Amino acid sequence: MRLVIITGMSGAGKSTALKMLEDVGYFCVDNLPVPLIPKVADLWKASGTEISKAALGVDIRSGQTFHELHKVLDELDGAKIQYEILYLESEDDVLIKRYKETRRFHPLSGSQGRIEDGIREERKKLQFLKERADYIIDTSHMLTRELKTELNKIFVQNKEYKNLYISVMSFGFKYGIPADADLVFDVRFLPNPYYIDQLRPKTGNDPEVRDYVMSSKTAVTFLEKLTDMVEFLIPNYIQEGKTQLVIAVGCTGGKHRSVTLANALYQALSKHENYGIRIEHRDIGKDAVTKAK
C-alpha cells in the first residue's frame, strides 16, 4: 500500500497533482477531514482491499481540525503505517497573481482581507508539514505539463528525487536582468551572430547560429567550466534545502548567444534525472516585435 499525502500552499497546484495521480491509478480523496485520516488508512491497509495506491489532499481548508494533523501523523507513525508527504510550494508573487487571475479569495484572507496576509498566515500554519515532507516541489516557474512530468518521475517511475527544480533561462541585458535569478552569467564576450547578415534574423535555436557561437574555443571552454561549477553547486544547494534554482544566461538582446549557451547548459544538466529541469528563452522574440512596431 502506497499512501501519499498531498499538501502545500493554496494555489501551488495540489488539485493538478491529485488529478494526475488519479489518472495513473491512485485512489484520490481531496480535503478529507483530518481526524478521519488514520481510520481511512487502516481500512486501506486491511488485507483484501483492492486499493494499492492512494493519495489524500490535505490543506488549510480543513479549518479548525487542521491543527490536529501533527498528532495524526504521529499516530500513523506509531501504527507503522507508511506514508509520503508531497509539499507543493510557490513564491508569494506567483500565488498572488494566480489568485487574481482566477478571482478567488484566499481561504485565510476572507472576502475582505488581503491575499498577501492570507498567504503569510498559511505559510506559518504549514511550516511543520514542510519540515516533514518527503518531496518539496516549487511550482513557481512550472507549466502544468512540467509539474506532471516531475510527479510521474516520483510516483510512477519511482526515481530518486532531490527536491530541486532548475530553470535555465536566456535573457537580454537590454531588457533587464531577471528579478528571480539566483545565478547570472554574461556571455556578451562571445562572437556576436548579430553582425552576420544571414544570421541576424535567426536565433540560438537555429543550427547555423548555434554552430557559429560554439565554433569559438572560448565558448566551448566557458560551457565546460560553467557546467562543472553548476554541477558542483547543485548538491550543495540540495543539502541547504533549496527547492528552486534559476540560472540566467544573458547577452545583449537575448536572441543569439545566450539562447545557444542556455540550451547547451540545459542539455548538459538534463542527464541528471534526480532533479527537475526546464529551459526558458525570455527575450528571444522581443527584437522582432520591437522592429515590427
Summarize the structure.
With about 290 residues, this protein is of the alpha/beta class. The protein has helices at about 15-25, 35-45, 70-80, 90-100, 115-130, 145-155, 205-215, 215-240, 255-270, 285-290, and strands at about 1-10, 25-30, 55, 85-90, 135-140, 165-170, 185, 245-250, 275-280. The longest helix has 24 residues, at about 215-240.
Structure description:
- This protein folds into 2 domains: 2-155, P-loop containing nucleotide triphosphate hydrolases (Rossmann fold, 3-Layer(aba) Sandwich), CATH 3.40.50; 165-292, no CATH class.
- It is built from 10 helices and 9 strands.
- The chain has helices at residues 14-23, 37-45, 69-78, 92-102, 115-132, 144-155, 207-214, 217-240, 257-269, 286-292, and strands spanning 2-8, 27-30, 53-57, 84-89, 135-138, 165-172, 183-186, 244-251, 276-281.
- Helix 1 crosses helix 6.
- The longest helix has 24 residues, at 217-240.
- The protein is elongated and about 70 Å long.
- The termini are far apart.
- The mean pLDDT is 88.
